[in-house]
Amino acid sequence: MSVADMPNAEIPGAEMPDWFVHKKPRANLIVARWVPAALVGLPVLVLFAIVVYPTVWMFYHSFQDTNMMRLFQGNWSFVGWDNFGAVLSSGRFGDSVVHLMQYLLFGCVLQVILGTILALTLYEIVRQEWLRVILLIVLVLPMMLPPSIVGVLWKFMLTPSNGAVNQALLNLGLVDKHVEWFNAGVSLWAIIIADVWNWTALPLLIVYSGRVSLPPAVYEAARVDGAKGWLVMRRITLPMLKEVIAIAFIVRFMDAFKFVDLVYVMTSGGPAQTSELPAYIAFQRGIREFAIGEAAAYAIIIFAISAVLITLFLKYLKKVLKAQGIA
Amino acid sequence: MAAIRLTQVNKIYRSRGHAVHAVKDLDLTVEDGEFVAILGPSGCGKTSTLRMIVGLEDITGGDIFFDGQRVNDLDPQARNVAMAFETYALYPNFTIEENLSFPLEVRGVPAAERRKKVHDLAALLRIEDILGQKPAALSGGQQQRVSLGRALIRDPAVFILDEVMSHIDAHLKFQMLFELKRIHRELGKTMIYVTHDQVEALALADRVAVMSNATLQQVGTRNQLYHEPVNVFVADFIGEPPTNFFPAELDPAGDQPVLRAKNAALTFSVAAERGQRLAASGQRDFVVGLRPQNLRLDGTEVGEPPPGGTLTAEVAINEYVGERTVLTLVADGHRFRAQAHAETTLGRGEQVRLRYASSDVMVFDAKTEALVA
Amino acid sequence: MARLQIEGLCKGWDFPVIDRLDLTVEEGEFFIVVGPSGIGKTTLLRLIAGLESADAGRITIGGQDITTLPPYKRPVAMTFESYALYPHLSVFENIASPLRARRLDKAAIRKAVTDVAKLLRIETLLDRRPGEISGGQKQRTALGRTLVAEPQVFLLDEPISHLDAKIRHELRLQFHSLEELRRVATLYVTHDYAEALSLGDRIGVMGHGGLVQIGTARDVFMRPRSLFVAQHLGQPAINAVAARLTGEGAALQAHAGNTSFGFPVVAAHAAVLARGDCGQVTVGIRPQHVRVLHNGEDAPGHHVIDAHVEIYEALGANGVLVADAGGVNLTALTSLERDFAHRQPVRLALQTDSVFYFHADSGDNLLL
């Protein structure tokens, strides 16, 4: 029976030579002993202060009836699952989840699709290296602007009476009267349009770099095999980019759950809460209305949902990568 | 099936003001059904040549004909070539079966027929049991066979194989060489094989084209390259262990001219008639080439030794390689190798006498390095 | 006194790459580990260099236990298969890098580097970058970097496998003649059996988990402990024929099932084989022990078989003939001058006293 076959518990220490035991490497340091401790310790302290403590604080308060008054007075009290109950039973939360779905489907998915199309078009169609670089820079520019500026910019562009977008639509004859971009039911679309403009460049960059790193020999093989154009795209490029595209989507997906800035700048969730997203409500309830307990409950629910979804995503990704022998 | 003719083919790469002349005035003909290898060290232009034949690279100058038809402007598909790549270039997200059937799918072959062809070919290549797997799960040798299979499946006019053995372990390589040879014999297709490994080229090809410095040096059968290399480069590149070279002077004294190694007492005798020719050329400086296989330990040859001469040398290193022994010898400041039986146990410092046949002595011009006689 | 000693080395528990490996490399010894790719040769070197940590076992150099030391504290130097030169540094700086790490003074570094460069004949390349030199020169630079470190143990990972045949021969000579390498313990890893046989003072053939056989070149080639060893040394590979031993004593015969292939077992072998009950064996015949007879030639002491040619190819310095001998394909080594046609009848002379007999299941050499 070889050692490898033996269950660990059965290895009798006494019968093994003394070296036949896994030894932990001794610390062999070229610096003073406190240096490694400090190098590890300081970041841990900072991490604790800015991540662990607030998170624990939030969990704690999600079960308390904390508001600003009580917070300062220090007399909040335990209310069990009341905060969660309030959140889940309110129509406001349900509506915001529907908005989030709408945003994911038409915002994030659209960004990934558009980004992929742009990236591959850029790579396959534009032959001149310099032109490609210039186009890439131009396409990436919106992403470099702060969201508050983007929000203001699009608020102006979408102004119903004399905004650039309505003018253009009228001149092109696509609409016959001004579109009321910030009315109920439409304002969420306004946010989505601005967000697509703002963030399409991210999936574009991710997919473009993915395409650049695909092995050229495979494309030569396809050329010799006689495959061209759309067939190569459909059967070879897109399948090979599957994981890269999935990663681009996950990145945008994660952002969606904490999406506050454009909502705040463009519509403040209005009119009549018709463009609210869950994170925005948490922000609104906690920071603006100081319903800290309820805001914490919002945050935890969002955290839980996104954690589950992203774990599923990563599981899928790992499976795919494993099947291809990459990871 | 196709015969291939290259006439005055040139390839010049230009980038940022630099121009690299990768292939110079190449003339080469490959007969229908022939197996030709293009052999040369890295950077000699063999891969550029191959890529021009396939159609992956523009031709800077000259013409390429397939069966008399000029194909310069045709794309790879229209030329009907198939290619196996050094890096295999399998489609990573396809199974092996899909990889093999893709070229057929592109041509709109119905699924049932594709299936049958793939399975027939898999049997030929002995890869039936891995058809359902993805390329990443296979060993290098298996991937290699699949990539060969993808080239074989669609009945092309010409097969192009680019360094396809370079990633295969030595002890599997030999088997793969035979396999490829068998496939060539069974299909009777024109094949062009590019490699830097002379063993592969000589084992596989009907004829070998040796390239160096963007120029074709010699095209010939194994025997031609081995016995009549046109210049020092070919003599040096073909053969293992490498050929021994001795800078030498012709000593025309007497009726039997001999070549004397520079600054040494080593002499090489050649047949009288050949010696006269060397003397008549008016040249005095030559390079003598003698293959290690043709230097035999005195007393080990079978039968009457052919006319030739002997060298006396001291053993410097005895390299035992299983089937044979390679002796590195030193004589008068010249270092050279000889091949001996596996049982040879001669050690460092021992004196040996080596016999060679005059007909095996290759003589090159010292300046042009071309074979003189 | 710096011998490298490895005792009970293990790496990996569930699927051990290395399983209780013992090895001693003496000071001044050139020890070669040969084996197929992916078998764990490089892992062994990495364990000794400290780039990976052992799961069990002990490694000592000159009596000092280094099993748990970090790489930079071990008195070893290693070259990598990919050379691993610093692309942004000149050849000089690449060679000097181990000395710089030790903060030697400038003059000493310059002297050490130029000495090593002269030895390896790269002294004219010292100002160049790795991108501007050939593969063989890169290999020498990598070797220089390890030589200059003056370690007690050299670890060389496939140092010449990826070079052209001519440069390979050249560097092989260099390994033979470099006194610096011959003074310390060297562990050299390769998949090329010819390299191993030609260079190694001793050779270890690596199979799954560890060294299957250790011995001199002639030992491992002429007395392989198992079929695995025999199959991995030699090109073309050894003929392995499943056969049955029949008859008694001096009349012992080997026969391949369902074919007419067979030959008498020589008395010396028969005596050994008779002791075990091994009816079913794998017969191993090296291609060089199958001689293709010329017309009318006699081969006293050989067993002559009629066969016909399947394939004949030139392979490097020899011709290789595969012949169908009564239903069994035999590979034979011939001289390059000869030529054979497909299906041509030939007579093969088996050197039956050089045949190996392996156990049909375990592959153990039954004659040892």
Structural features, described:
The complex is a heterotrimer of chains A (about 325), B (about 375) and C (about 375). Chain A is built from 14 helices and no strands. With about 325 residues, chain A is mostly helical. In chain A, α3 packs across α14 (about 290-325) and α4 runs parallel beside α8 (about 185-200). Chain A is globular. The mean pLDDT of chain B is about 85. Chain B is an alpha+beta fold and about 375 residues long. Chain B folds into 2 domains: about 5-235, 3-Layer(aba) Sandwich (Rossmann fold), CATH 3.40.50.300; about 245-365, OB fold (Dihydrolipoamide Acetyltransferase, E2P) (Beta Barrel), CATH 2.40.50. The longest helix of chain B has 18 residues, at about 170-185. By secondary structure, chain C is of the alpha+beta class. Chain C has helices at about 40-50, 90-100, 105-120, 135-150, 165-175, 180-185, 195-200, 215-220, 225-230, 265-275, and strands at about 5-10, 20-25, 30-35, 55-60, 65, 75-80, 155, 185-190, 200-205, 210-215, 240-245, 255, 260-265, 280-285, 290, 305-315, 320-325, 330-335, 345-350, 355-360. Chain C has a 6-stranded mixed sheet, sandwiched between helices. In chain C, strands 13-12-11-14-20 form a 5-stranded antiparallel sheet. Chain C has a 5-stranded antiparallel sheet with strand order 15-19-16-17-18, with no helix packed on it. The interface of B and C includes residues 204 and 339 of B.
Quick overview of this protein structure:
The complex is a heterotrimer of chains A (327), B (373) and C (368). Chain A is mainly α and 327 residues long.
User: What percentage of amino acids of chain C are in beta strands?
Assistant: 25-35%
Give the beta-strand count of chain C.
Answer: 20
By DSSP (H or I, 4+ residues per run), the number of helices of chain A equals 14
Uncertain runs of chain A are: 1-29
**Main CATH class of chain A:** Mainly Alpha
- Helicity level of chain C, as a percent range? 25-40%
End-to-end span of chain A in angstroms? Answer: 33 Å
Topology readout:
The complex is a heterotrimer of chains A (327), B (373) and C (368).
Chain A: H1 34-61, H2 68-73, H3 82-89, H4 91-125, H5 129-144, H6 147-157, H7 164-172, H8 187-199, H9 201-212, H10 216-225, H11 229-257, H12 261-266, H13 278-288, H14 292-323
Chain B: E1 4-15, E2 18-30, E3 35-39, H1 46-54, E4 61-66, E5 69-70, H2 76-79, E6 81-84, H3 96-106, H4 111-125, H5 140-152, E7 158-162, H6 170-187, E8 190-195, H7 198-204, E9 207-212, E10 215-220, H8 222-227, H9 232-237, E11 244-251, E12 258-261, E13 267-269, H10 272-280, E14 285-290, E15 296-297, E16 308-320, E17 324-331, E18 334-341, E19 351-357, E20 362-365
Helix pairs in contact in B: 3-4, 3-5
Chain C: E1 4-11, E2 18-25, E3 30-34, H1 41-49, E4 56-61, E5 64-65, E6 76-79, H2 91-101, H3 106-119, H4 135-148, E7 153-157, H5 165-177, H6 179-183, E8 185-190, H7 193-199, E9 202-207, E10 210-215, H8 217-222, H9 227-232, E11 239-246, E12 253-255, E13 262-264, H10 267-275, E14 280-285, E15 290-292, E16 303-315, E17 318-325, E18 328-335, E19 345-350, E20 356-359
